[in-house]
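Structural prep section.
Before we set up the soaks we want a predicted structure of the protein with zinc ion in place, mainly to decide which crystallisation condition to try first. Input record follows.
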Amino acid sequence: MNPAIDDDDLRGYLAEDLPATEMARIEKSLRDSADLRERLERVRLDRVDAGLHTLGAIWRRSRVTCLSRETLGSYLLDVLDRSQAGYIRFHLEVIECAFCQANFADLKRRSQTEPDGRPVDRERGRRIFDSSRELLAGDS
Ligand SMILES: [Zn+2]
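Run finished without errors. Recording the tokens verbatim:
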């Protein structure tokens, strides 16, 4: 059983001041727990010198927590359960992962517009997403 993560651990995590195994353990817990993500956000806001920058930099560097295009597509279509969607929102809006934000923006654009730029309806967007997922399946 892992020891509980307290606010000091979270501060250490934000400062990247922990051993790699501890960083990994906290990151995994963050992925699994919406409560912990809220606490991290609170701790982060309390810190004078911690910007989104620091936290974003940690996650971007490892990128193990990044979202697949399929996951982002499911989020876009609103077919995920609440905790999954919460994690993705956290990743995009709190971590502000530039990589996933760009991917998400791209998917959003593809799902919403025809090749000639006209808007598409939601069902059609879903079909486009399914077919692009097939195309993308081969390139990763
Ligand atoms: Zn990401």
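Observations: The pocket of zinc ion is lined by residues 66-67, 91, 97, 99-100 (CB under 6 Å).
Flagged for discussion at group meeting.
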